[in-house]
Specification:
The complex is a heterodimer of chains A (333) and B (110). By secondary structure, chain A is of the alpha+beta class. Chain A contains nine helices and eight strands. In chain A, strand 5 and strand 6 form a beta hairpin. The termini of chain A are far apart. Chain B is mainly alpha-helical. The longest helix of chain B is centred in the C-terminal third of the chain and has 28 residues, at 81-108.
């Protein structure tokens, strides 16, 4: 800036930046100091004048107000969300408690039923009832079998916005309800005797459906990995399953979409019983109704309508011509 | 020392009173805070340079805050409020930075 008239500073076009960088201090300070020196006073005034202190109090006030007013506070949405989550969790816990209570009461009812039947001198009925219960999927079963594990492709990743409606349609790397249906039907087809997905027993009235992107089994949402527990002759099922349609379908899912699947045999597996098997509208046909298709549980829980009965699709009671219970996976997709 | 105490007193009053800032004032608050910060650091540097002047401090403080708020207001009216705010923040930020650097040289001789 202090160059001669003939010369131009090389950075003259950037005087704004230069002055900003070189003289950050307000020029007024220097001028005031020069004036005071010219008047014979010391260049600096004391810092303890009233004006300065008032100004500093004002500054502190401004800082505090600014910090307080501009800090992002938890929004109403966040608190509502937290409240909803806690409510969902408590209701879920309550539901689980009720379910276990149902299971224990069901067991009690079964025991009392057996006792009543024994006292009535109808011992042969207890065996029939037990067989039918097994076929209906009311009781938990154990035995050798297979475990089929399906999981989303690693590329699918976790759902970034689990609460949001999917905007981009279906993610092909995810296991769909139809995939599970095909696998389960294939397993029934190769001789499965009992199937459970993630601990939910598949009975004749069970359905594998989808809601949004969640898979629903027996009206309960399940999350990956999907573990299908199958009871049956493990070696034979494995041998038959892999070349079957479902087996080939699984292999294609793996190759094309990266959906991981694993099939392993085990000597001892357990499937739980389904706690909600109950038919209220369906009735056995008078002619073909086998003796004693009324399950003890229904007799007990629906005492006012003793005619309601289980119509199981087990090999024992299924009418000729109907296939295995895989017909029950109807409404979906 | 006493001005620093004043700053603390002001902070305490602000935190205790917790006044509600009117909504129309809220866009100007960050800019005003930065402008005040610039004036305060300028004053500290002037003290260390030995050329502090209370009148200059008060005037520069008030004019800084008012001008910064006015620029943002004007920008809001013209539809370039965000850009002008950025400009004000950059200019004041550079000034704060070089003043703080100068203070640091005074205090630590480095």
């Amino acid at each position: 800036m202090t160059t001669g008239p003939g010369q131009r500073r090389p950075d003259e076009s950037m005087t704004l930046l230069t002055s900003m960088l070189e003289r950050p201090l307000d020029a007024g300070y220097q001028e005031a100091a020069d004036r005071r020196v010219a008047a014979g006073l010391p260049p600096a005034t004391p810092t303890r004048t009233v004006a300065v202190i008032v100004m500093m109090v004002l500054t502190g006030f401004l800082f505090a107000v600014g910090a307080h007013a501009l800090r992002p506070r938890p929004t109403a949405a966040a608190s509502v969300k937290a409240e909803l989550i806690s409510r969902i969790e408590s209701v879920q816990a309550d539901g689980q408690q009720q379910e276990s209570r149902i299971a224990s009461l069901r067991k009690e009812v079964g025991d009392l039923d057996a006792l009543a039947l024994r006292q009535a001198g109808a011992n042969d009925l207890t065996d029939t009832i037990r067989d039918l219960e097994i076929a209906a999927g009311v009781v938990s079963l154990t035995g050798p079998g297979l475990t089929v594990t399906l999981d989303d492709a690693p590329s699918a990743g976790p759902d970034p916005n689990p609460g949001d409606r999917p905007s981009s349609g279906f993610d092909s790397g995810r296991v769909a309800s139809s995939d599970l249906q095909i696998v389960v039907n294939g397993l029934w087809g190769v001789g499965a005797e009992a199937i459970a997905i993630n601990g939910h027993r598949l009975t004749s009235t069970a359905a594998i459906r989808f809601a949004g992107q969640a898979i629903i089994v027996n009206f309960r949402p399940i999350t990956p990995p999907y573990v299908i527990t199958v009871l049956g002759d493990a070696a034979r099922m494995q041998q038959l399953f892999e070349p079957s349609f479902a087996g080939v379908y699984l292999a294609q899912l793996r190759e094309q979409f990266g959906i991981t699947s694993d099939l392993s045999a085990s000597d001892r597996l357990t499937v739980p019983g389904d706690s909600v098997t109950r038919l209220t509208a369906a009735k056995p046909m008078t002619g073909s109704a086998a003796k004693g298709t009324t399950s003890p549980t229904d007799k007990a829980t629906t005492g006012t309508e003793p005619e309601s009965s289980e119509t199981t699709t087990s090999p024992g009671t299924v009418t000729p011509g109907t296939s295995e219970p895989n017909q029950s996976f109807g409404a979906s997709r | 020392m006493i001005p620093a105490l004043g700053l603390l007193v002001g902070l305490t009053i602000g935190l205790l009173l917790d006044p509600a800032v009117p909504v129309w004032l809220q866009p100007y608050l960050p800019i005003a805070v930065i402008a005040a910060l610039d004036a305060v650091f300028g004053a500290v540097r002037a003290v260390l340079d030995g050329i502090f002047n209370d009148k200059v401090f008060v005037v520069s403080f008030l004019s800084n805050v008012v001008v910064a708020a006015f620029i943002v207001f004007l920008g809001d009216q013209l539809g370039v409020g965000a850009q002008l705010s950025t400009g004000v923040v950059v200019v004041l930020g550079v000034r704060i930075f070089s003043n703080v650097a100068s203070i640091r040289r005074h205090l630590f001789k480095a």
